[in-house]
Amino acid sequence: MSSLELNTNATSCNSSTLDPYVPGSSNPWNKAKVKHCYRRLGYGTDDITLNNGVNISPGALIDQIVDSAANAPLREDPVWGYYRLVDFNDYNTENPEFINDFRIETGNLMVNDGLKGRMIFFWLNHFVTELDTYNYSPYLFQYYRTAEQHVLGNFKDLVHDMGLTPAMLFYLNGFQNTNTEPNENYARELFELFTLGEGNGYTQEDIIETSKALTGWNLSPQAGGQIIFNTNTFFNGDKTIFGQTGNWNYHDVIDILFQERGELIAQHICRKLYRYFVSPEIDLMIEANIITPMAQTMLDNNFDLVPVLKQLFKSEHFFDEKTLGVIIKSPFDLIFQFVNESRFLFNDDLMEAFIYYAAILGQIMFNPPDVAGWQGDQDWIGTSTITGRWALFRAYLNLLFDSGQEERFRALAIDLSNDSNDPAYITQVIVDHFHARELFTSTDYDVATEVFKWEIPQNYYDDRLWNLSWAEAPYQVFLLLNHMATWPEFQLK
Q: Could you report the per-residue pLDDT of 423-468, keeping only the tens digit for each?
């Protein structure tokens, strides 16, 4: 196991187990817990859905979210999804247009598809390719479609199919991997990143022999078409992989890998799932009490993902108060969560702008920084990106307010506060709605309340003359949201 996977010097504050969460007086089932589910398993949701979630059991809510994602239909194929180069009317014009449109549509689906949208991007950041290396819209779609087809299916099947996508074959030099010159890139990343973890359970000789078994997948009868197996470039001879010798091919490699190193694979993937959904920190206790039993569940279910995810998401560990607000939002999280939880306007033009600004903040859709992908959490925050986050959020609010959408601000306050005229209460419910947990001190709420009250004379509040119907109310909500965007707590989920 890599030192990056386990922090032996850390001590987790969360000692809860994988036993199913049973609400009690010390850890009640409430809106904050429901919000936690939708933020970690998707990109947030509206207040109506949160209130409905409180009325069913935690286990039933998790079943509903996971089963809905597992059974969701595939997105519609774009017309160009399986184009060959000859099918383009004008490749130089159409290809970048198709890619841009696909990004916008994908962003829209991420906002709306909950766990499915989040898991697709989890896998694309696990089986990394960089669009810039192949820059071909049909291959981008086919790569995405492969992740979508297996998003909550079987991990072994996902590993098998992802390695044969044209995007991956381009990115990790599958086209250069031939019997005369075996290329080790994909074999190395198959072990190091995709299944086992760095330096965990394989040797350099395993990589060399595996690269020979992966040869042959480099024939495209037509430029930009599907990749098929080429017997002429396949290394036809014995290879020894994990102690097994034979004239192995790609399919054999996957079978041998999961047969001989299944336990290590399950542990590696469960660590990644844990870091993504629960906490970036794994110590010895988490490894023993959470990761190991999750890995056993994965093995017991032949690498099917749904039982593992349900075990984690239904656990008292996942619902422990100490899991709330411990993960830094990605740029996509930052804006998509707010859009879902405010139900403020977004359209294709805004989505295009969100994607552009997310790229400035370090998250270029379909272009991770390297083969290891985005590491997330603290890597999202730096001296330049934190101010960029504030600027992005404020730009969105300003655009809405200046484009005739100010009544949405009023509606948000009315809905969340039940049309209260108490500025302190209105402030608190708005702040709490957009945060993983309550603010650290009451002083923070007091300062926020003063921002919300703006320039309205105090006597209007004291005498209960002011209310959310006032003409100034939308601007007051606008000021509060702008103020809120600069808090460290707002960066957490």
A: 999 999 999 999 998 898 899 999 999 999 999 999 999 999 999 9
List pLDDT tens digits, range 226-283. 999 999 999 999 999 999 999 999 999 999 999 999 999 999 999 999 999 999 999 9
The pTM assigned to this predicted structure is 0.95
Domain regions of the chain by residue span? 70-323, 328-493
216: left (phi over 0), alpha (psi -120 to 50) or beta: left
The per-residue pLDDT for range 384-399, each reduced to its tens digit, is 899 999 999 999 999 9
Instruction: Find all residues with CB under 8 Å of 93, minimum gap 6, and list them.
Output: none
DSSP per residue, 205-226? HHHHHHHHHTTTEEE-SSTTS-
List C-alpha distances in Å: 32 to 44, 96, 193, 240, 323.
Answer: 12, 42, 35, 53, 12
- Are 430 and 480 in contact by the 8 Å Cβ rule? The answer is yes
- What is the rounded CA–CA span in Å between residue 118 and residue 159? 18
- DSSP structural state of residue 238: -
Question: What are the structure tokens assigned to 41, written together?
Answer: 């398993």
Please tell me the total number of residues recorded for the chain in this structure.
493
